[in-house]
């Protein structure tokens, strides 16, 4: 009998406790290196903590936030972030819908085309930005050369606020549109062909079918993509940092014309070593991201079937 | 009755729209679709191609008007210059170590936890799963300051384990494997194993792990590419003397040199490993994204 008893005990131990063992490594590592830093950011944001100061850290409560409110560089960075959010998110979703519709046709060599649209997404953000910074070069950039062919003059892409935002948006849109297109394509393929057949018999054109059948049925994916794109586009850092690399890269252009909030966080945290202030920026940026994602949700939720 | 004998012309005329309507319903691509798709393909590939072109030319080619658009014979000379200018070999080694370790770890721990969440019953399972789903949405970069403080405290700043350790698990990986197990393994199979007195670890090893291979492969591909391309955290925590490929690119681009051929050659070299993975497993990668296997 003791043998059975032992087996039964082992079995009970197995069913009751072993599952925790399987999920423990994840929660342990995530807790220490993911969740804890995230929450601790809030505490650091309430401190005066600068690595360059001798005195060490002291709790100053909301001083950092009060400083943010009147910091023109911060508001400039938030403005740039919002502008870039709009210039990246909207075209990403619209182009992705168009490309998905193209890929959804019966196409030969479809794997080739699908791989083609996702190629930009697998290249690294550092490499992409370095390549595009050259393509957008003022004197010898390929894009200016093409513009000149069409009679437009030289554009100094980095110098202006609008032009630099457009250039950065192009990099982001180039890198992410294909990803969203494949998400949309997957759902388009699940739409029953009979819907389109019926619409065709009723005399609906391809365009009407796209806007009245395809897009409304894709609403969940459009909401998902908008939120994913928003969380990514609200914290652009590599693109503005490497668009104008050099000693003063963290300012995002000579007049901070393309410094994003994430880049300002980086500048305060890792060139000024003002950890308290930098953490306050992180907290505000996180809140802003949630608000903007919520806005995106409210807008995309309104897509409806007629 | 003469109407019946009318020439066939009026009968043929509606055939045009009818054919088009049928094509519309069957969604067969016409020439315009192909033209548009080829344009998209060209737009996608061009920047990478152009970077390769510059890498294979002499340094003065980048300033030429009209621009050079075909590869030259200078690729290996440029590659040699990259390795002479910076310790790019160290950067490549670091990136391989980081991406390799992170990939193996994420796949293993995600499979383990995903199996438990999908197929084992335990108290608090749903709450914990909800926690995982919720944390997926949080950009962990926002905790970068305390994370950096921790790494300094541990004495890891500047070393590659500072990059490896926070990447060892991802919420997304656990969730993805859980979704896969849910569908891939019938409960009866595991129950039969339980009846035979199999320890759950044996069930995991002999039933779950073999069944997980396709999903684990897709997760591995994405994890590798993401780890390889990761930029912000390595930039913060590493030093230029001990870089990954991405931070080495950043240093090179922001540095003392205005030799853009050199910078673009480095960018090309750094892209080759992910490009190779992509060309070998493109079909799986496309399939993975379409089944929701990657987080943006």
General description of the model:
The complex is a heterodimer of chains A (about 300) and B (about 300). Helix content of chain A is about 75%, strand content about 0%. With about 300 residues, chain A is an all-alpha fold. Chain A has a two-stranded antiparallel ribbon with strand order 1-2. In chain A, α3 (about 70-105) crosses α12 (about 260-270). The model of chain A has no long low-confidence stretch (mean pLDDT about 90). With about 300 residues, chain B is an all-alpha fold. In chain B, about 70% of the residues lie in helices and about 0% in strands. Chain B has helices at about 10, 15-25, 30-55, 75-85, 90-120, 125-135, 145-155, 160-165, 170-185, 185-195, 200-230, 230-235, 245-255, 260-290. In chain B, α4 packs across α14 (about 260-290), α5 runs antiparallel to α11 and α5 (about 90-120) packs across α13. The longest helix of chain B is centred in the middle third of the chain and has 32 residues, at about 90-120. Chain B is globular and about 75 Å long. At the A-B interface, α1, α3, α4, α5 and α7 of A face α2, α3, α5, α6 and α7 of B.
What's the arrangement of secondary structure elements?
The complex is a heterodimer of chains A (306) and B (296).
Chain A lengths: L1 H44 L1 E2 L9 E2 L3 H7 L2 H32 L6 H13 L2 H11 L6 H8 L11 H28 L4 H9 L4 H12 L1 H15 L4 H6 L17 H10 L4 H27 L5
Antiparallel strand pairs in A: 1-2
Chain B lengths: L8 H4 L2 H12 L4 H25 L19 H11 L2 H32 L5 H12 L7 H11 L6 H4 L6 H14 L2 H9 L4 H30 L2 H6 L7 H10 L5 H31 L6
Question: How much strand content do the residues of chain A show?
Answer: under 5%
- What is the CATH level 1 assignment of the largest domain in chain B? Mainly Alpha
Under CATH at level 1, the class of the largest domain in chain A stands as: Mainly Alpha
The total tally of domains of chain A equals 2
Number of domains of chain B: 2
In quaternary terms, these chains amount to: heterodimer
Tell me what the CATH architecture of the largest domain in chain B is. Orthogonal Bundle
Taking Cα atoms only, what radius of gyration of chain A do you get, to the nearest Å?
A: 25 Å
- Sheet/helix structural class of chain A: mainly alpha
Q: What structural class do you assign from the helix and strand content of chain B?
A: mainly alpha
Count of separate DSSP helical elements of chain A: 13
Helix-strand sequence of chain A: HEEHHHHHHHHHHHH
Q: CATH homologous superfamily of the largest domain in chain B, by name?
A: MetI-like
What's the number of extended β-strand segments of chain B? 0
Cα end-to-end separation of chain B: 68 Å
């Amino acid at each position: 009998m003791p043998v059975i008893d032992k087996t039964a005990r082992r079995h009970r131990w197995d069913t009751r406790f072993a599952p925790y063992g399987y999920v423990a490594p994840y929660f342990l590592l995530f807790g220490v290196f993911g969740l804890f830093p995230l929450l601790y950011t809030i505490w650091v944001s309430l401190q005066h903590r600068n690595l360059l100061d001798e005195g060490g850290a002291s709790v100053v409560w909301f001083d950092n936030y009060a400083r943010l409110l009147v910091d023109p560089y911060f508001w400039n960075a938030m403005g740039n972030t919002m502008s870039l959010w709009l210039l990246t998110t909207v075209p990403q979703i619209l182009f992705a819908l168009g490309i998905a519709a193209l890929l959804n046709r019966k196409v030969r060599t479809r794997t080739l085309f699908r791989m083609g649209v996702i190629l930009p997404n697998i290249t690294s953000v550092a490499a992409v930005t370095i390549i595009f910074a050259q393509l957008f070069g003022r004197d010898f950039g390929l894009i200016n050369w093409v513009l000149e062919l069409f009679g437009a003059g030289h554009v100094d892409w980095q110098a202006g606020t609008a032009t630099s935002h457009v250039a950065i948006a192009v990099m982001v849109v180039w890198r992410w549109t294909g990803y969203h297109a494949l998400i949309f394509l997957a759902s388009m393929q699940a739409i029953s062909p009979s819907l389109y057949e019926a619409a065709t018999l009723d005399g609906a054109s391809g365009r009407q079918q796209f806007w009245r059948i395809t897009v409304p049925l894709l609403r969940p994916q459009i909401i998902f993509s908008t939120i994913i794109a928003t969380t990514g586009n609200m914290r652009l850092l590599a693109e503005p940092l490497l668009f104008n690399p050099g000693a003063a890269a963290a300012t995002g252009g000579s007049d901070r014309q393309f410094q994003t909030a994430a880049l300002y966080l980086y500048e305060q945290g890792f060139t000024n070593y003002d950890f308290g202030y930098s953490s306050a920026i992180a907290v505000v940026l996180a809140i802003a991201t949630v608000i903007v994602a919520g806005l995106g949700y409210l807008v995309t939720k309104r897509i409806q079937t007629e | 009755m003469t109407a019946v004998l009318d020439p066939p012309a009026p009968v043929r005329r509606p055939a045009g729209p009818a054919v088009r309507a049928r094509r519309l319903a069957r969604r067969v691509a016409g020439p315009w679709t192909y033209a548009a798709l080829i344009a998209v393909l060209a737009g996608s590939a061009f920047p990478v191609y152009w970077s390769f072109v510059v890498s294979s030319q002499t340094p003065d080619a980048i300033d030429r008007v009209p621009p050079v658009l075909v590869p030259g014979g200078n690729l290996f000379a440029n590659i040699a210059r990259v390795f002479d200018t910076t310790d790019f070999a160290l950067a490549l080694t670091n990136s391989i170590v980081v991406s390799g370790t992170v990939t193996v770890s994420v796949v293993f721990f995600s499979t383990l936890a995903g199996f438990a969440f999908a197929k084992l019953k335990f108290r608090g399972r749903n709450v914990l799963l909800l926690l995982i789903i919720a944390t997926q949405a949080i950009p962990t970069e926002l905790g970068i300051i305390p994370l950096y403080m921790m790494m300094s405290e541990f004495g890891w700043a500047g070393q590659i384990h500072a990059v490896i350790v926070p990447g060892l698990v991802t919420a997304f990986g656990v969730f993805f494997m859980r979704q896969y197990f849910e569908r891939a393994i019938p409960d009866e199979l595991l129950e039969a194993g339980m009846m035979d007195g199999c320890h759950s670890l044996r069930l995991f090893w002999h039933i779950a792990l073999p069944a997980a291979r396709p999903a684990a492969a897709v997760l591995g591909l994405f994890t590798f590419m993401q780890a390889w391309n990761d930029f912000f955290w390595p930039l913060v925590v590493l030093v230029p003397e001990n870089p990954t490929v991405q931070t080495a690119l950043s240093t090179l681009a922001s540095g003392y040199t205005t030799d853009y051929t050199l910078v673009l050659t480095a960018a090309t070299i750094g892209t080759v490993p992910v490009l190779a993975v992509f060309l070998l497993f493109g079909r799986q990668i496309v399939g993975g994204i379409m089944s929701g296997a990657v987080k943006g």
